[in-house]
Amino acid sequence: MGLFDTLARKRTPKQAEGDAGEEQALRYLEQQGLALLERNFRCKGGEIDLVMRDGRGLVFVEVRKRAAGDRVGAAASVTPRKQARLVIAAQVFLQRYRMPPACRFDVIAIDGASMEWLKNAIES
């Protein structure tokens, strides 16, 4: 393993906290019957934290985690700009399907110890 590999694996405390939030959200969604298809899908236009299957449909999930008492809640932090980037990334992801399945955008908002699942949170 070279120096670049070591540097690429180092995560800031904020990134590590985000990773923990994604893992918590993933476990919760799997308990609700969703299945993971892909994690951290990245493309030039954006990133999707979790791509899940819910029955025959796809769910693009944005996970936001904020400390308790943060002035901007986790759900409110999904700005219109972030929403647009999610839609672009979803469009790129869907290019792999000849006939794209039904899909929706959900947000898992984690504020301190509280977690909320917002289905159809983003309109495309």
UniProtKB/TrEMBL annotation:
Chain intervals for the UniProt region annotation (Disordered): 1-21
Gene3D superfamilies: 3.40.1350.10
Molecular functions per Gene Ontology: nucleic acid binding
One protein family per Pfam: UPF0102
Superkingdom, taxonomy of origin: Bacteria
Family: Belongs to the UPF0102 family.
Protein name per the record: UPF0102 protein AYR66_11735
